[in-house]
Design brief:
Layout: H1 3-12, H2 18-25, H3 30-43, H4 53-67
Helix pairs in contact: 2-3
Length: 70
């Protein structure tokens, strides 16, 4: 498999969001799923305003987690 094939596969088959897993795979209602997503979003740490390489990486991880919620 070439690098281009891997990129296309990843683009065409993105991993499921937390919403999709809870709602589609576990069968929770939309309202219940939305409440769980909201709770997880509140639970996630805030981004760190201090400028450093470590905090930039931390913030990147937090943003990635938030993006994968819905």
């Amino acid at each position: 498999m070439t690098d281009l094939d891997k990129i296309l596969e990843k683009h065409n088959n993105p991993p499921p969001t937390l919403y999709k897993i809870i709602h589609d795979e576990l069968g929770y209602s939309h309202d219940c799923t939305a409440e769980i997503i909201d709770a997880v979003e509140k639970w996630l740490p805030k981004e760190d305003p201090r400028p450093s390489y470590a905090t930039m990486q931390w913030d990147k991880c937090v943003r990635m987690m938030r993006e994968k919620l819905e």
